[in-house]
Design a protein that fits this description.
alpha+beta, about 425 residues, Rossmann fold, 13 helices, 5-stranded mixed sheet, single chain, binds adenosine monophosphate, BirA Bifunctional Protein, domain 2, elongated
Amino acid sequence: MFEAPRGTRDFPPWEMDKRRYVEDKIRNTFKIYGYREIQTPTFEHLQVFTLKSGDAIIDEIYSFKDKGGRDLALRPELTAPVIRFYVEKLQMEPKPLKLFYIGNCFRYDRPQKGRYREFTQAGCELIGVDTPEAIAELIALAYNILRNIGLKNVDLHIGDLTILSTLFKKLGISDENKKEIIPLIDKEKFDELYLFMQNIGVSKDEIEWFLDVLKMDDISKLPVSDEIEEEVERLKDVFGFLRDIYSIDCKMKLSIVRGLDYYKDIVFEIEAPILGAEKQLCGGGIYELIPLFGGREAPSAGFAIGFDRAILAAETEGYRFPISTIDYYIIPLSTSLISKSIEIAQILRNKGLLVDVDLMRRGIGKALKYAGSINAKQTILLGPDELDKNAVTIRDMVTGEQKLVLIEELKNL
Ligand code: AMP
């Protein structure tokens, strides 16, 4: 007996129904915002990922040598592959370039609820523009995708790494100390942060001021110095568009750091509080990767939504995804009527209806029970009496009501 590898999942038909339904919703939302779908390979050269994150990432991903001795990796995310693709083939496309993807990703994570070793991300990259209206549209898109999936409660937080860096500079924090501080900020371990800053000689007043700013959720209260004035204005504009035009509730959170490895300026996260520990559904922002891949500098921003977690969150909130059902289940009441049943099935299938025929040559009781188990909306019973009248009996599986319908009329169903 084999089991699926740790951290991977098999999806039965009822799960796939849900996943395809959500995929359609996501695809459609991207499209109505002017994004076009792309696909990249499931594996890339390992360097595509080590380039931006360093060799440390190798411990967290699936990497291997192929038979030609090349170092490859299963993609842990899609931003780097999309930028690799952009630099290789799409740089000459008119801007802005709005690209989206839905694809599986692989990480050597410790599996738990909402955390898998193979999972799906739905995301996009916006290349060539970073005006406040562009970033507001990007954030509104992420938010609306999650709402369109059926989620009710999501928290949207927006941060700014340029502002955060200026705060670091103001406090005279060295790059080395930043490396220690950033994970503490990311995890909101403010007590530990306090102690660390105290140890490196930051004054009590300055630490308290810094923590107050990190915890501030209203941009209008942010202390503005000359160096960050422009950035604060841009961030204010983004909030303005989101609140006033898109009617989206959002809060400032300067403690969003997103690893800091390639993001800059505005960053954002969307969480589903109902999920507890693994509540982060989406992360994104403005980043700089194109020059790293050898391309000509161009503004770029994007986000990635954890597809599996978004479904989990909607279901935990009580959302019931529609289930796909068979329109007609056809039951021949004797073996001599099998051919006629298939003929009728083909008439209905050619109309685009979802039709199944009983293939097991079983009695009506068992066939009806099966039709019920696959949620068939109606069954078509074909017996000798019906055939004498060139008709079939159609039974509504919900009400149990039956009616005689001429075969000729099935074309008009
Ligand atoms: P990241 O690329 O790490 O910013 O991840 C983007 C989103 O993907 C996260 O907000 C999660 O919702 C989702 N995600 C990341 N890692 C996993 C995982 N191991 N299993 C399921 N979802 C994940």
